Amino acid sequence: MTLLIPDQLEERLRQIGAERYHNRHPFHRKLHDGKLDRAQVQAWALNRYYYQARIPAKDATLLARLPTAELRREWRRRIEDHDGTEPGTGGVARWLMLTDGLGLDRDYVESLDGLLPATRFSVDAYVNFVRDRSILAAIASSLTELFSPTIISERVSGMLRHYDFVSEKTLAYFTPRLTQAPRDSDFALAYVRENARTPEQQKEVLEALEFKCSVLWTMLDALDYAYVDGHIPPGAFVP
């Protein structure tokens, strides 16, 4: 590929999101449109918990490699957002409030015993990607947050409208993300625009975002196959 100016690179990144972000996935559309039953929503929340719980570990692997205090301070906020600053706070704790509200046993959720194999493989692949690839690629992979406010708004409004077993309290995880995600994506996008200076680096950035979109898409593929099509693998959550 030829070298892109920063605006062109950003345009390419946003195009990837428009084409590949998981708000376009059929399972998300079913979730948003009220076409899932309570058990299927439970399966989604249970499997998504693993993603939420591993995000701080993913960010910690990158934090350890960042070369400046300024970058480490910025990235540390992400860990605090998810792990909280004391027990019972942060995004992971709020996700457990969601699974509690859906009637799932908390010990069972935290045990990870009911995960779909594809959930575990996909999330672990993302953690390993951020650990093993360049700092630039690792930061670029977080740019799905550019598109998350749209999916959060759809998800919350749709679930509140269609499901009588959820409430604003149950969905409390999502409210802080409406401000955290844009803050984080603004930083990551500025970093990528500034530091992807060669065609090879820009290709790496674009492929990193494509990879992350594929991780999120694959997780929904697995949920759709198991809990909509009815092919639940051995050992996975059975409603």
TrEMBL record:
Listed InterPro entries: Haem_Oase-like_multi-hlx, PqqC, PqqC-like, Thiaminase-2/PQQC
Source organism superkingdom: Bacteria
EC number: 1.3.3.11
Gene3D superfamilies named among the record's database cross-references: Heme oxygenase-like
All residue ranges annotated as the Thiaminase-2/PQQC domain in the record: 11-221
Pathway: Cofactor biosynthesis; pyrroloquinoline quinone biosynthesis
Top-level class of the enzyme under EC nomenclature: oxidoreductase
Keywords: Oxidoreductase, PQQ biosynthesis
Pfam short name (any one): TENA_THI-4
Chemical reaction(s) catalysed: 6-(2-amino-2-carboxyethyl)-7,8-dioxo-1,2,3,4,7,8-hexahydroquinoline-2,4-dicarboxylate + 3 O2 = pyrroloquinoline quinone + 2 H2O2 + 2 H2O + H(+)
Function: Ring cyclization and eight-electron oxidation of 3a-(2-amino-2-carboxyethyl)-4,5-dioxo-4,5,6,7,8,9-hexahydroquinoline-7,9-dicarboxylic-acid to PQQ.
HAMAP family according to UniProt: PQQ_syn_PqqC (MF_00654)
Entry similarity comment: Belongs to the PqqC family.
Name of the protein this chain belongs to: Pyrroloquinoline-quinone synthase
